[in-house]
Amino acid sequence: MDAPRPTLVCPFDKIFPSQLLRDDEIFMWQAYNQAIDAWRQDEVPIGAVVELNGEIIASAHNQRDSTRDPTAHAEILVLGQAAKAIGDWRLNEATLYVTKEPCPMCSGATLMARVKRVVYAVPDPKMGCLGGATDLNALPKVNHHLIITQGVLAQPCLELIQAFFKMKRLEE
Questions:
Q1: Which residues pair with 49 in a beta bridge?
Q2: Active site residues
């Protein structure tokens, strides 16, 4: 079965959707590669990259188990790297690419970092907070709103996550 078409929710999707989709896929494959690195380190395979002006300025994957740090999610790590790379905590023009919808902590950090756009592959109806379980971006009094694109490379990212957990269950 074909992967579902990505849902573009941004003001410029009508101007040049094919260019935007191509770029989104390129950057999401980089996030996917980070997820592979996470798997190799026996971490849940979630990867993230931050793009600014067409270049990746930061990349990371989950490191909770290896660091024994509950905040070492791919998104938190990559946002910190990106802020250091540009010398400012405000990531106003940056795009975060992540292989799974961000959790409450990561969604909040993304809003606080003033990221312009978030592109994620796999929705998370249980813990996702950019439209899945809830939507922090829709809070009426929040002083910043993200542009959200979901579903880019959803199928390969979902298959990677599912394969990881299937393997883990077999190991038990």
A1: 59, 97
A2: 75
